[in-house]
Amino acid sequence: MLTVSIQKQLPDFLLDVCFAIQKEIVVLFGPSGSGKTTILNSIAGLVTPDAGMIRLGDTLFYEHGTKALPVQKRNIGYVFQDYALFPHMTVAQNIRYGVKEGKEVGLDELVATVGIGHLLDKYPHQISGGQKQRVALVRALATKPDLLLLDEPLSALDADTRKECQDELLRLQAVWKIPFLMVTHDREEAERLADIILTIENGKLTGEKRGARDLATR
Amino acid sequence: METNLTPLLLSLQVAVLSTSIVFVIGIALARCMTRRHFFGKHVLESFFLLPLVLPPTVVGFGLLLLFGKNGFLGKLLDQWFGITVVFTLTGAVIASIVVSFPLMYQSAVAAFTSVDRRLEDAARTMGASEWRLFWTVVFPLAWPGLLAGFVLSFARGLGEFGATLMLAGYLPGRTDTIPVAIYFAVESGQMEKAMFWVIIIVALGMSTTLWLNWWSRRNLRRYANQK
């Protein structure tokens, strides 16, 4: 379980949120500039909150007044908004970047599931947006993270590719069974993917509800 | 005209040594400065770039004060390692380091700033140490800019005159790099000798910039459509 309770002063408002998520897809939904990405970055360890606490299972990531756990030791996967693939490495090198030697078990399967096997020798600038998105997803999961963070992972894709990638995410979460915390400002996407939707405005949580998919499967 | 090639060899020796040192120091300082923000950073950066705007004689004067027999560093070097700086090739190397450092530093800062921070963050989330992400992500992506800095520093080191003359003087066969040799050839009316060295240094400079232009154009295209 991921528990987040943090405060951080941002230029326009105070980010002050508190939530806990299980092994499910939770969507942080809200307009641009409402503090969503800062929450992801705080969990990842790329940004330090001013106060509060972040804990994943038994591991304390951050607690005010103590030394924060470094990014490298948090074992999380992070899919960035514009994918942040290394432009000078092939798809295969990108995917293997965070994989320690001897821990490649399951990597080939993952590559096959997501259908990027034929792209391994290509460079990021040689593949399409949807393909980049899949590569970024595989790269983030390749380190076998305990938590996956996704920052607007589908915002740059056209409608069809977007839907395919949404299905991919749902499938992967069902297999991996780790918490997926995803940021989006697209209501439809939030409804379609989320077990739980957390609405955020100006740094405060203003609503929590179950997603349409979750209600439909009950 | 007898051709004594010592000035060419000395110049190359000085330029290779000083550029190698400047490359390492420039990269290390540029990386630190682009990652950290602290009080007085701008003042420190201005200080780094000072040799670029000061007359070389002023730089040379400063170095003379610092590295001379009674200078702070001069004394230390002499006592600890028995190294004399003034009127030696070491002096020429130090002068060359100081005047070419700003070029390497500026190129490296620009090169590091151009690397997308998100790529570094991505590497961190995948468990990469700062050391590993520097060598696997930052350095390869900044490489074109770093190499440009290297070449510029080399060219500057090769052509350094004012500070070199102040610190290393003109000792034929020991500290007479090409620019110094040209000056003293003209001074003593040996125009042919001066012309010979002028042609050599123009050829060296021209081929350096030509190559740099060609190379950077080729490399700028490399990740052109990376997004």
UniProtKB/TrEMBL annotation, chain A:
Give one Pfam family. Answer: ABC_tran
Keyword field contains tRNA-binding:
no
- Decide whether keyword Glycoprotein is in the record: no
Q: Spell out the coiled coil positions from the record.
A: none
| Top-rank taxon, per record | Bacteria
The UniProt GO MF terms for this protein read: ATP binding; ATP hydrolysis activity
ABC transporter domain: residues covered: 1-218
Entry keyword set: ATP-binding, Nucleotide-binding, Transport
- List, alphabetically, the PANTHER family matched: SPERMIDINE/PUTRESCINE IMPORT ATP-BINDING PROTEIN POTA, SPERMIDINE_PUTRESCINE IMPORT ATP-BINDING PROTEIN POTA
Q: What is this protein called?
A: ATP-binding cassette domain-containing protein
Automatic annotation (TrEMBL), chain B:
Superkingdom, according to UniProt?
Bacteria
Can you name one GO molecular function term for this protein?
A: molybdate ion transmembrane transporter activity
Q: Which UniProt keywords apply?
A: Cell membrane, Membrane, Molybdenum, Transmembrane, Transmembrane helix, Transport
- The UniProt record lists the ABC transmembrane type-1 domain at 8-210
* TM spans (from-to): 12-34, 46-68, 80-112, 133-155, 194-215
Q: What is its main location?
A: membrane
Query: Any idea where this protein resides?
Result: Cell membrane
Which InterPro entries does its entry note?
MetI-like (IPR000515), MetI-like_sf (IPR035906), ModB_ABC (IPR011867)
Q: How does it sit in the membrane?
A: Multi-pass membrane protein
Which GO cellular component terms, listed alphabetically, does the Swiss-Prot or TrEMBL entry include? plasma membrane
Instruction: Please report which protein family the annotation says this sequence is part of.
Output: Belongs to the binding-protein-dependent transport system permease family. CysTW subfamily.
The UniProt function text for this chain reads: Part of the binding-protein-dependent transport system for molybdenum; probably responsible for the translocation of the substrate across the membrane.
Q: What is this protein called?
A: Molybdenum transport system permease
Q: Which species?
A: Brevibacillus panacihumi
